[in-house]
């Protein structure tokens, strides 16, 4: 396993940890391609999740140090990703070829694709059953699509291998999702979000105002001003 690298994440042998330089690159990526900021949370608050786009909006400070706020979609990202959790995840494609140094960018690209397709709000759509096999199949379709698009963004010109679940889904559940294609397209084709600033002190998640929750191992190797 590679040693510590603050530009690509900090590795401890079993997990990769988010660092300020890596966060900055990923936040710019999200702001540029999804037009939303990243909100970091401590992995122990949701240990089964690597990242997610909540269907509800979150508060952001329009300008750090000012009182103005607004509510908007954000990408929530864990401050630590366990390698076993990432590689054992089955969302339709084989993730084993993704090197540890690419895990955070891949995960963020995946959430960017969720934001762009707006499938995080499908739970509110009255045309889609809220329970049962249909909704499960649509969720699986959304995850598989996000993974495929993330792979395309990360590794253009190559194609991932479908996992056994992906192959099964492609053959058995495609017909379940087909009737709901208009609903899926309706969200994806909505007006694009307005661009947001790339500056680190603008559109700051309210939870970051008092500091980003870096993992303890990251704080131990960072200058005090970065660890704050």
Describe the structure.
This protein is of the alpha+beta class. It contains nine helices and nine strands. The chain has a three-stranded antiparallel beta sheet. The chain has a three-stranded mixed beta sheet with strand order 3-7-4. A three-stranded antiparallel beta sheet has the order 6-5-9, with no helix packed on it. A hairpin with a 3-residue loop joins strand 1 and strand 2. Helix 1 runs parallel beside helix 3. The longest helix has 23 residues.
Short précis:
The protein is an alpha+beta fold. It is about 40% helix and about 15% strand.
Strand content of the residues, in percent?
Answer: 5-15%
Q: Numbering strands along the chain, what is their spatial order in the largest sheet?
A: 1-2-8
Residues in helices, as a percent range: 25-40%
**Spatial shape:** globular
Biggest sheet descriptor: 3 strands, antiparallel
In DSSP terms, counting alpha (H) and pi (I) runs of 4 or more, how many helices? 9
Average of pLDDT = 85
Helix and strand succession? EEHEEEEEEHHHHHHEHH
Q: How many DSSP-defined strands? A: 9
Ends: how far apart? 28 Å
